[in-house]
Write the structure tokens for this entry.
Amino acid sequence: MHIQFAELPVFDQDRAKAFYLDHFGCQVAADAPMGKDGWRWIELKFAGAETALHFVRRADETPSADPVLVLVDSDVKATVAKLKSHGVEIISEPQDAPWQPGRIVAEFRDSEGNRLVLGN
């Protein structure tokens, strides 16, 4: 078995967990205490994917300036429309990727201010 972890910096684990469960249909693979400060080991799985999303601690709520993760989706336009309808901040609308003609990309921010790329 081969599972990869994508680490995502978060400030509020519960807010981040809810964002990915609600907007991407993730399932909780693990949610267990990691110490006395209340921080937890949380793993979320995307349906049909081998990669698990793992939250790492971020010092504050300052949004990321650069993308921290790329999510691959077969229908970028539909996913962006869904995210917009739920009030998610869209940084760039779906467009052709300048580095690869025929590939559609968009960018958005998650609940923690992380800048993410969505591409097909």
